[in-house]
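Proteins fold reproducibly. Next comes an illustrative record:
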Amino acid sequence: MAKTSAKNYYIVILAGGGGTRLWPKSRQLLPKQFLKLVGEQTLLQETFLRIENFLPRENIYVITNKEQVGEVRKELPKVLAQNVLVESVGKNTAPAIGLAIKTISDKNPEAIIGSFASDHLIKNKEEFLNVIEAGFSEAAKGKNIVTVGIPPSKADNGLGYIHIGKQLDTSLKKPVFAVRSFVEKPDLTLAKAFVASGEYFWNASYFIASAQTFITAYKNFLPKVWDVLEKMTQLAPGEQEKLWRKVTSIAIDYGIMEKAKNIVMIAGDFSWSDLGNWPILYEVFPASVNGNVFLGEVAGKHV
């Protein structure tokens, strides 16, 4: 796919997570996004490679923390230095995404911004870009926050779910649905009922909206967080860090998406996995005849 001609489109890659569910392979200083779990590239590099042909590099941002910024710069030399945003302390996804929104919107108030995780496995890259392109087209209308729902392949109580309503738009390449609610990690019985209903999708926590739509949501639902972000731009770095340490740590799913009424969803059927734990790796990668899964170089026979 050729680079989009939409100069106002921006993507933010979230690359500051700890990845503790894959311990001891994934650790605080070398979390999941920096591991080569799916080939010769790390998950972070794979994420960048998926989108670098969609947008010009000056429109791609990465947000991480000060412990991991060196690794991010090493792995993604194509990302402009000023586009690597650094949290002095990890504060979860709502403040992190908010920092990116504030930074980008100060440069371009007309920006359409998409936020994506750096540690997911996506096998069908072409379909991923088709879905993302449709998501940006919907978000460019200016009134809704667009999320991507993954068609569930099974009942999984380790993931969040999106409950959809009626189909809203048939003009795009992908159908757009109203979102009734978000349900975070239901018990297995409820998850089975969700999947059986056909009205629920896995929540990949991908969000796209105009900068102004995002800002309105922050002001409505996380006003203290947005107040910090506005004040930080007027302070010296040392004072910025002191203020940042006081900001509420909260996921954007809880802080905004569960409360907002202007959320719509596009289905993302592109062979997705969050690679969240060891059992999922066992499902994703082929096993040997004796049921073992090997990642990376292994001495001896694969038995």
Observations:
- Residues 93-107 form the longest helix (15 residues).
- The CA atoms of residues 30 and 39 lie 17 Å apart.
- The chain has a mean pLDDT of 86.
